[in-house]
Amino acid sequence: LIILVTLAFAKPFLGASPKLGKREAVGIFIDNSPSMSAEGKEGPLLEMAKEAAREVIQGRPADTRYLLTCFGNSAPTFRLRSKEEALEAIDQMTYTNASKTISQAIQKLKEGLANAPVNGRKIFLFSDFQKSQWGAFTNDSSIRILAGILKAEEQNNIFIDSAWFSTPVLGLNRPVSIVYQIVNEGEIDQK
């Protein structure tokens, strides 16, 4: 009888997992490619992206953990951070010419958040989302992805599409003519 009474009032412990409360992990990707140096309404797009990321962090509960990434190695080590550490890491981000895709950054964040001991997981993306930055992307319903699209005020994109010599054979001490084709994919007509 004493054993039955003891078992009746005992809290079950087999198969019970500890409750994590409402703690969440947030992944943040900040595009720090050269295109983010374009001017937006409130300054360079990179600075606007950093400010938007700071606002996300400031608006979340104190026990939220953050996983930050960007292109290249301008973000400090890839690990879960507190609010203060995340804000400091954002301040350290700089421009880079590293060639990765946003899809690779999303995959890196998903893998990092998969093992986080939390209940909720979200990813915030801050970029100008240029076509050349995307790769193969598969959506995952277990993690919510939110995009902050930053747009430059004026899109100037003039480049030399191709260049060639006017003659197929080059000779020593002979004048050479170079022919080139310029393409304007910007929003403003350049002459």
In short:
With 191 residues, the protein is of the alpha/beta class. It is 24% helix and 24% strand. The longest helix is centred in the N-terminal third of the chain and has 14 residues, at 45-58.
Please describe what this structure looks like.
It is built from 4 helices and 8 strands, in the order αβββαβααββββ. The chain is of the alpha/beta class and 191 residues long. It has a 4-stranded parallel beta sheet with strand order 4-1-5-6, sandwiched between helices. A hairpin with a 2-residue loop joins strand 2 and strand 3 (43-44). Helix 2 (45-58) runs antiparallel to helix 3 (83-92). The longest helix has 14 residues, at 45-58. It is elongated, with a radius of gyration of 26 Å. Mean pLDDT is 79; it is low at 1-20.
Termini Cα gap: 96 Å
Shape assignment: elongated
What's the count of strands? 8
Task: Kindly estimate the percentage of residues that lie in beta strands according to DSSP.
Answer: 15-25%
Strand order of the largest sheet: 4-1-5-6
Mean pLDDT: 79
Helix and strand content put the structural class at: alpha/beta
Helix content: 10-25%
**Major sheet details:** 4 strands, parallel
- Topology as H/E string? HEEEHEHHEEEE
Report the total helices. Answer: 4
Radius of gyration: 26 Å
